[in-house]
Amino acid sequence: MTAWIEKIENAKSLEELESYRVETLGKKGVLTLEFAKMKTIPNEEKKAFAENLNNQKELITKALDEKKAILEKEALEKKLELEKIDVTKFNNELSSGALHPVTQTMDKIINYFQNLNFAVEEGPLVEDDFHNFQALNLPQYHPARDMADTFYNKDYTLLRTHTSPVQIRTMLSQKAPIRMIAPGTVFRRDFDITHTPMFHQIEALVVDEADKISFANLKHTLVEFLQHMFGEVEVRFRPSYFPFTEPSAEVDISCVFCKGSGCRVCSQTGWLEVLGCGVVDQNVFDAVGYKDKSGYAFGLGIERFAMLIHNIGDLRSLFESDTRLLGQFK
User: Fold this and answer.
1) Residue range 27-83, pLDDT digits in tens
2) What is the pLDDT confidence band of residue 113, given thresholds at 50, 70 and 90?
3) Residues 296, 277 contacting (CB under 8 angstroms)
4) 323: which strand partners?
5) Rounded distance between C-alpha atoms, residue 158 and residue 138, angstroms
6) Cβ proximity of 277 and 222 under 8 Å
7) pTM for the full model?
8) Spatial distance between the Cα atoms of 124 and 132, rounded to a whole number of angstroms
9) Distance from C-alpha of 238 to C-alpha of 220, rounded to nearest angstrom
10) d(CA 37, CA 4)
């Protein structure tokens, strides 16, 4: 039996160890055959014979178990060694995603006005004529209603052409004072280097008692906002016309590319148009049942701001999913 234990202790593999187990404890193993002799042993000798075999079996079983534990540990270590990964072979640069420049710009604008206690309001993308046109003092003959500009549905609804309907819905559901912005998607029939059929706007509305809101409040708000977005730029207001505000103005900033000296982007003028604004027209207040109120409103295109902030030359590139462009905004 000592020879078998020595063989077991010198086994080189689990397969070799298993063969020794079969040869000793298997159905035809040497110990199994010895136990089979019990029936031929005289009764007075059986006890001693059985004790001797059990002792041998116990020794062999113990030797098998101990050697198996050793071989299994060696096999595991060998497997881990073969399968280990050398992390120094891999590039340390991580490939990660990022917010789209339009989303980045929108979030920055929303955060700015939320810090000024403006509420963020939302409205439906499919609008009716009253909220999108009529309540905003856009008469039936106004060119903005033309089929060439607006996506109309067969049931006389339409895809909203601006986020101004959210201002109307807010005034119809809330009482003054109101401080709100309405970010969202809008739709118009247009597609060129500076226009797309679907784009994003943020419009703002402030309403209070008649003697509390003036154009001076609007001017201060916009100058602070534009310098927050573009740095130390000059801001100018040019008289303009919008049906829903009176007086109205277009707002320009000194060109962020040439610093006002004149370049191709600003058409050598030194100025870039960025948004429209004005004092809310009384006809708009009449449409929502407001009496003795004053307010101001302004609206801007998110893509326009994103193009200026990130120096993007073609608006359409923001929607073409070109990874060469989007990869720059990680």
Assistant:
1) 777 777 777 777 777 877 777 777 777 787 787 788 888 888 888 888 888 888 888
2) very high
3) yes
4) none
5) 15
6) yes
7) 0.66
8) 11
9) 15
10) 20
The C-alpha atoms of residue 180 and residue 263 are separated, in whole angstroms, by 36
Phi and psi, residue 320, nearest 5°: -95, 0
- Residues sharing a CB contact under 8 Å with residue 174, sequence separation 6 or more, in sequence order: none
Q: Other C-beta atoms within 10 Å of 7: how many?
A: 17
The span from the CA of 310 to the CA of 271, in Å, is 17
Structural Rg of the chain based on CA atoms: 41
List own/partner pairs for 310-313 with CB under 8 A and 24 or more apart.
310/101, 311/257, 312/101, 313/193
First to last CA, the chain: 72
For residue 126, the cross-strand partners are 159
43-83 and 14-25 are packed helices; what angle lies between their axes, rounded to 10 degrees?
170
Q: What is the pLDDT of residue 106?
A: 94
Q: Residue count of the chain, please give it.
A: 330
Q: Which residues of 251-285 are buried (b: 16+ CB within 10 A; e: fewer)?
A: bbbbbbebebeeeebbeeebbbebbbbbbbbeebb
Cα separation, 218 vs 231, whole angstroms: 19
279 backbone dihedrals φ, ψ, rounded to 5°: -85, 135
Query: How high is the pLDDT of residue 180?
Result: 96
Helices (H), the chain: 2-9, 14-25, 30-36, 43-83, 101-114, 129-132, 164-173, 215-230, 282-288, 302-310, 323-326
pLDDT reading at 147 higher than 60? no
Helix (H) or strand (E) holding 272: strand 271-280
- Quote the CA–CA distance of 107 and 306 in Å, as a whole number: 11
Q: What tokens were used for 75?
A: 């096999």
Query: What mean pLDDT comes out for the span 80-93?
Result: 76
In DSSP terms, which residues pair with 207 in a beta bridge?
178, 295
Which token pair is 181? Answer: 């912005």
